[in-house]
Amino acid sequence: MSSEHAKQPAVTRSQKKVRSLELDKGSLENAITDLEARLRRSNLRLVGLPEGREGSDACSFLEKWIPETLGMARQITLERAHRVGARRDASAPPRVLIMKFLNDREKTAVMQASRNKEIIVGEHKVRFYPDLAAGVLKQRKQFDSVRQLLRKMDIRHGMLVPARLVLTHKNKTHTFVCPSEAESFVRSIQDDKDSGGRG
């Protein structure tokens, strides 16, 4: 019995140490995700552009093709551009092309210009996406169920970089970094509507 009591403080110390290590690990993962997100901030992913269309100089091709295709008056300057992954056979979808802009404002202008434009090259639909870190994608995925609810309720919403949900309700903008807080808020709107509240 006394030996059991003697073991208790050691077990408690071990549990505290494990909790502390878990917190440290979480902090390090967040720091790495944040750093990776900052490094990719000036990047865009181009999905669907047929293989080889860019020729041997992807930067020069894209600097000309993007403004022409999107009807932009301004020119863009890219630091670098390349396909991701090994070349695949002809039947596979085109590899993603990642481009790094010299100027963040130009990247934002391209995203805005491409937002409501359908781009078809050959038989492929071409789209621009932010180049998000794996950790950020994982964080964003945690909002999927809330976003599904918002779509059903026809509530305007979107995601801000890196992983924040923004929604508009009763002409007021709400921003969430925590999926559970967002879900509680959306459920309260739903409950209000179900009980006949005006909103």
From TrEMBL:
Residues 18-45 form a coiled coil. Gene3D superfamilies: L1 transposable element, RRM domain (3.30.70.1820). It comes from the Eukaryota. The keyword Coiled coil applies. Keywords: Coiled coil. The lineage of its organism: Eukaryota, Metazoa, Chordata, Craniata, Vertebrata. This is LINE-1 type transposase domain-containing protein 1. It comes from Mugilogobius chulae.
